[in-house]
């Protein structure tokens, strides 16, 4: 991924660790079947230490491929943030499970389902708020899906993720080098429904704009006499 592609995030973005005030606008879009190849590219680009942090083990390429092939978009929700070239800078996977089948959360709620969240951000796009925005979007989706318990598992050494979890008000339990984080969520409201619908509309517009720009550039570069970039 070219660092220029990060410009797709915002026109005025500064790539050297922007402070909270300088952060780009991050559009989080719900992903679908057509994103499977991009998801694979995103996960395969994670190095061993990121794979360990994301999956709890250094998943080899074959198992990552299988994980992506098996993602069920009708059962779970996958969110993403695209760069200007429509590659995925960040991915959040929200897996819904019936309460009884969750060994960890079956006593945590009376709701029918609980949710587990996993997230990864491309190494060259960190510190811009993408991970936090993916998490916030996942939390709002849980509320709108009548799920009041959001769970996340990570290594205790994962200070960045623990910081994001603590900032969101998650209760964090550390044991044997691992950390479990729980967030109790309020019920849905007209405000949460509207917020999610508006965010998805903006993200869809942003995606369309990037897709059209990409297609136009491709066409332009193919014109006779132009050197392809
Ligand atoms: C964890 C991860 C998703 C964070 O993504 P990100 O886009 O960089 O996160 P954000 O930019 O939204 O937020 C990072 C926050 O952590 C803080 N942070 C960064 N490094 C930190 C550290 N070593 N200790 C404490 N906080 C740290 C940042 O200051 C920022 O906080 P702020 O928003 O209050 O300023 C990303 O680092 C990643 O993909 N890691 C590998 C996979 C992984 O660990 N997944 C989580 C397990 S499911």
TrEMBL record:
Read off the CDD domains from this record.
NAT_SF (cd04301)
- Renumbered residue ranges of the record's region Disordered: 1-23
Q: Which GO terms describe its molecular function?
A: acyltransferase activity, transferring groups other than amino-acyl groups
Q: Which residues form the N-acetyltransferase domain?
A: 26-189
- One family name in Pfam for this protein: Acetyltransf_1
Keyword tags = Transferase
Q: Does the keyword Transferase apply?
A: yes
Q: Does the keyword Ligase apply?
A: no
What is this protein's record name? GNAT family N-acetyltransferase
Protein species of origin: Noviherbaspirillum saxi
